[in-house]
Amino acid sequence: MNFAADPVIRSKNRVLLENLETITYKDVLATIPRACFEKDVSRGLRAVALHLVILATSYALLAVVPWWLAPVLWVWIGTVLWGNFVLAHDCGHRSFSSSKWLNDTLGHFLLLPTLYPFHCWRIMHNRHHAWTNHQERDNSWRTITPQDYQQMPWFDQFFYRHVHAYGWWFASVIHLFLFHYDPRKFRPQEWPEARFSLGVVGVFALSFFPALIYFTGLWGLVSFWVMPWLVFHFWLSTFTLVHHNHPEIPYYPAAQWNPVKAQLFGTVHCEYPWWVELVAYRIGVHIPHHLSTAIPYYHLPAAHAAIKAHWPEYVHEARFNWSYLQEIVSTCHLSDVEGYHIPVSETKKA
């Protein structure tokens, strides 16, 4: 895959993006079968129950396997914790159930092991959905212009350069604490719910971590929590990065952005290895999720098939592998005048 500026791709995209100016959100949503918006709470609850059994069994295995097998289980448990996040993700979007109480209760419970305060995350994540691939307002993997990069203090440049490159896997850890634990990020009407979720996480942390250290020691803290938590963040950072970075997708300047461009043309469908998909609950089927967060995870494949049948020229698909990820993290750093990705090394040229 060539991430270089390709005049043929740009010319084709100009035509497609001009056409998208005439297509309304209603036009696109009308092509998704109504059945895709139906919630099956019992199906969701069965998935949660099975998922928690998988998680508990995995931790039980970690407690008894030889030390040299622990890294394998760290990777697996971290991936299962990513599944926790995806199921809580449906709760946050209210696509799990019509009951606010059930969504909030399950969402808080599923996110506790990752230290995500549910309402804080929900509020910030909804902003990402509202401003997907907006060059100024998206709060997730937004790429900035070379001019803005050059005006940054050196420390901010260092931070930006590395989290958009080979430090991508740690970016969600930084994002967690900078965006979800800072009261200044929330509007006054949002703060009561955000404060409640921060309190829930605080009580959990003050109870869980001392107990874990008491019963398993410092090595238990590292083995049972720190290492799986870092693997979880690898997946969280990676999925988010891959969903919105692609050689043919720009980050739109404010004057060119609109919701249809962002959610239909600006979002990537990605297939992952089977063992990841097993506990990732189809979150890689991301285009219909961005078109409507009301679609439960189990209906995303059918919704994607309908979108692809009606709007094939606007659909971007990829398959996750190391070479694809490497091209993204070595190239997708800044946005040129049309919003397309360029590496930091081309800053002066741009």
Task: Tell me about this structure.
The chain is mainly α. It has one domain (7-346). It contains 15 helices and 4 strands. The strands form 2 sheets. It has a two-stranded parallel sheet with strand order 1-2. Strands 3-4 form a two-stranded antiparallel ribbon. A hairpin with a 5-residue loop joins strand 3 (334-335) and strand 4 (341-342). Helix 3 (41-64) runs antiparallel to helix 4 (70-92).
| H-E string | HHHHHHHHHHHEHHHEHEE
How much of the polypeptide forms β-strand, as a percent range? under 5%
Rg: 21 Å
Alpha-carbon distance between the termini? 22 Å
- Tally of contiguous helical segments: 15
Q: What's the helical proportion of residues?
A: 55-70%
Q: Can you tell me the residue ranges where pLDDT is under 50 for at least 5 consecutive residues?
A: none
Sketch the major β-sheet: 2 strands, parallel
Could you say how many structural domains there are in total? 1
Major sheet: arrangement of strands:
1-2
Structural class: mainly alpha
| Average of pLDDT | 93
Query: What best-fitting shape do the alpha-carbon axes yield?
Result: globular
How many strand segments? 4
